[in-house]
Amino acid sequence: MDERILVVDDEKDICEILGFNLSNEGYRVDTATSAEEALRKLTPEHALILLDVMMGGMSGYKMAEKLRHDGNRIPIIFLTAKAQAEDRIQGLELGADDYVTKPFNP
Q1: Is there a contact between 72 and 95 (Cβ–Cβ < 8 Å)?
Q2: For the chain (length 106 residues), average pLDDT per consecutive 10?
Q3: Greatest CA separation found in the chain?
Q4: Rounded distance, CA 70 to CA 83, Å?
C-alpha cells in the first residue's frame, strides 16, 4: 500500500500513536501539530487528512473550511473531543467526510 495520510493534532502523543498504527498497516504517514504546519506539509499525494478540531492558532474547522474554499477535495476525518450533535453537524457541513470522537480505539 502506498497511500499517504496527514495526521494533524496538537497532541504529539496522538500523532505518534496514529502514525505508528497507520504505518504498521502500510500507510505512509506525515504528522503536523498545528493547522498551519499541516497546510505547509499538505501535498496532492495525500489521500486522507485526520484532523483535530481544537488546536491553538487555526482550528481544524477553519482548516477544513479553507481547504474546501480553495477547491481541495482530499477526504477529511475529524478526530475530536467535541462530541455534541451540533459539533458533528458543523464539521460535516464544512466538508468533512466523517467525524470520530475521542477517545477512540486506534
Answers
A1: no
A2: 92 95 97 98 97 94 96 94 82 88 80
A3: 36
A4: 27
